[in-house]
Design a protein that fits this description.
eight-stranded antiparallel barrel; alpha+beta
Amino acid sequence: MKHAGVSILLLAAIVWGLAGQTALFRVTPEPAAKFELIVKKTGFLSGKAHLFNFPRYEGQLDFDESAPERSKITLRIDAASIECKDDWVSENDRKKVLEEARENMLRVARHKDLLFESQSVRKRSDGAFDVQGGLTIRGIVKPVVVKVTMKPAADGTLAFTGESAIDMTAWGLKPPKALLGAIGTEKEMQVRFALTAKR
């Protein structure tokens, strides 16, 4: 009986150890991937929105298949890679919008990266996950919650889509205004992405 008890404890330890194992995945740009920022306008331009894209980023995912809640992710976005995709403004105005985002909002000359580091993962009733973590903008870290949906692919990769609402004033960012305030910007930005993680 003593040997049986030891065997059971040993088996339990092995199972527990395997359950805690994680696989390392890399997150890098792919042709179908995207990382976007939507900034809605107010006043005379209510109903319009600036669409920004960040084509350069890299991340690492420590994924626990048996318990996704134990997984951790770090994502670093190249702030200077920001692109303005607006199709409702002139080319000249688009350049001005991009300059405002790069130089005044993100200050890419001093702050090269945007950084997200997860701290906890909670499974939702709809099958998605709430990933809570710290988001660094212009050297300031604030907590955010990102809703993430994961879909494993046949080739072993993981496809992620997600979204989050971010109050830019929490990082000291002032919503831009024009025409003496007749054209404004909502303080809440929308982040959405579709990313791929590979071993």
